[in-house]
């Protein structure tokens, strides 16, 4: 490199050099490194070859500013040793200022971002740099996303049921835990074995002299060992599955029994046209324990919750009562009434407790109401109301997924599947030509059974097969000692 030549002078004495910080020239050096630099006092130019970027030029040292320097600068070189860093060193890791990039090293990152991470190629995103805002958006989207599964629009099996009544005040179909389907066809009750598809008659036909006598309701107990059968004359019969015979009967009501619900293998409740709800226990000699009085017209539906603490009843008086079975609030009419619901405008036959959420009750109104309402028995408030545009006949919550099944009558005769708690309609099944008045489910809860006034029974596979819990199997293998 060429060095600057300093003119020789006689009697040169050391001078104190004063430093002056360049202002405008420094900004020019940032923007354009290839331009020449002009001294502020003279017109001599220095080419980039002769300019040492790591030392202060001599021309800048001869400034008119009177700034004192330390004493040790007297012996310093005229060029000084002050370090001025280049701006390029500040952007060594800036991808846009790097002079070149090796494409071969970035191929893996590009393929990963495009095919796996789905990152926009115009945005520079680090693989491990996740922002909190984006993470929250992805998480909320997963929570709102409904599970996608294939639901057959056609039934997997269809059975003929000649004589199945098209009556809103009857409930003569139930699929028990023993995998036997009990169905009442006018004056006879039949059992259908799902395992071997065999059918046999359970109850003997009633006296031929009483042409108006027929079975109006039935239901298996919770373990499938006993079947309760209600008749139009108010009598009730109990059939023992193990003994294959009728174990007893009772005659408390004098009008038809419209609905039956078991709380456990021993206790059940039934409602009748005489406006009363009877609580019974098979271990008691006379079976009857006490009555619940509150409805002013026929009781259309009763159902126990999973904890056996509450009983919901719907009547033809457009009312729903929630009864506390173990000590309720004191009431002038009945001490067991805890809540009275008056929001429906028609008879309530469809009732269902949510097994996945304690205290959640779904109710469905008749032809003049056509709504499904969700209630909370903890707060005694209505949570949601959905207009179905057709009569609501039956409701049932799934134990596998948090979904609700509803069957409808006038005017569409549909089977609908709802997601809870959003109550968004997921799917609807068409196949019955008359009102879908009957609804039950298989022991594994994966298949539902519907019955209609068109005298057909249809099996629908709409829920996934229940998977055993790995944690429960783990705890069953380990014992705390």
UniProtKB/TrEMBL annotation:
Highest taxon, organism lineage: Eukaryota
Record's compositionally biased regions (Polar residues): 1-13, 30-45
GO biological process, one term: anaphase-promoting complex-dependent catabolic process
UniProt WD repeat ranges: 216-249, 292-333, 429-462
Domain CDC20/Fizzy WD40: 159-460
InterPro entries in UniProt: Cdc20/Fizzy, WD40/YVTN_repeat-like_dom_sf, WD40_CDC20-Fz, WD40_repeat_dom_sf, WD40_rpt
GO MF: anaphase-promoting complex binding; ubiquitin ligase activator activity
GO terms under cellular component: anaphase-promoting complex
Region (Disordered) location: 1-77
Keywords from the named record: Cell cycle, Repeat, WD repeat
Signal sequence region: none
PANTHER family in the cross-refs: CELL DIVISION CYCLE 20 CDC20 FIZZY -RELATED (PTHR19918), FIZZY-RELATED PROTEIN HOMOLOG (PTHR19918:SF1)
Entry similarity comment: Belongs to the WD repeat CDC20/Fizzy family.
Record-given protein name: CDC20/Fizzy WD40 domain-containing protein
């Amino acid at each position: 490199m060429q060095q600057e030549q300093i003119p020789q002078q006689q009697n040169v004495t050391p001078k104190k050099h004063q430093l002056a910080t360049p202002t405008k020239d420094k900004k020019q050096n940032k923007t354009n490194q290839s331009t020449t630099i002009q001294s502020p006092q003279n017109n001599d130019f220095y080419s980039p070859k002769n300019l040492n970027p790591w030392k202060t030029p001599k021309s800048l040292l001869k400034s008119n500013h009177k700034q004192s320097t330390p004493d040790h600068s007297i012996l310093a070189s005229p060029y000084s040793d002050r370090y001025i860093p280049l701006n390029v060193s500040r952007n060594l890791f800036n991808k846009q200022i790097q002079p070149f990039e090796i494409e071969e090293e970035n191929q893996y990152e590009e393929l990963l971002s495009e095919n796996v991470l789905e990152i926009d190629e115009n945005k520079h995103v680090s693989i491990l740099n996740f922002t909190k805002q984006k993470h929250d958006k992805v998480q909320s989207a997963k929570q709102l996303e409904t599970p996608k599964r294939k639901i057959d629009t056609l039934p997997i099996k269809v059975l003929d049921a000649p004589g199945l009544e098209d009556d809103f005040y009857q409930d003569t179909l139930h699929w028990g835990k023993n995998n036997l389907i009990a169905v009442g066809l006018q004056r006879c009750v039949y059992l259908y074995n799902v395992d071997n598809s065999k059918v046999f008659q359970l109850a003997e036909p009633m006296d031929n002299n009483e042409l108006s006598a027929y079975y109006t309701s039935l239901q298996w107990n919770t373990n499938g060992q006993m079947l309760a059968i209600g008749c139009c004359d108010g009598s009730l019969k109990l059939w023992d599955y193990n003994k294959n015979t009728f174990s007893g009967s009772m005659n408390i009501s004098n009008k038809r029994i419209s609905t039956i619900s078991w709380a456990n293998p021993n206790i059940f409740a039934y409602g009748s046209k005489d406006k009363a709800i009877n609580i019974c226990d098979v271990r008691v000699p006379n079976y009857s324990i006490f009555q619940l009085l509150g409805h002013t017209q026929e009781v259309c539906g009763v159902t126990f919750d999973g904890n056996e603490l509450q009983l919901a009843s719907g009547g033809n008086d457009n009312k729903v009562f929630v009864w506390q079975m173990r000590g309720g609030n004191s009431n002038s009419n009945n001490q067991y009434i805890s809540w009275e619901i008056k929001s429906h405008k028609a008879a309530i036959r469809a009732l269902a407790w949510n097994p996945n959420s304690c205290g959640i009750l779904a109710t469905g109104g008749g032809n003049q109401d056509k709504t499904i309402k969700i209630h909370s028995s903890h707060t005694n408030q209505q949570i949601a109301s959905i207009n179905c545009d057709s009569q609501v006949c039956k409701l049932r919550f799934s134990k596998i997924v948090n979904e609700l099944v509803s069957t409808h009558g006038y005017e569409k005769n549909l089977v609908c599947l709802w997601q809870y708690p959003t109550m968004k309609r997921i799917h609807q099944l068409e196949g019955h030509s008359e009102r879908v008045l009957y609804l039950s489910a298989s022991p594994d809860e994966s298949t539902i059974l519907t019955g209609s006034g068109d005298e057909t029974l249809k099996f629908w596979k709409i829920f996934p097969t229940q998977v055993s819990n790995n944690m429960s199997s783990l705890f069953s293998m380990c014992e705390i000692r």
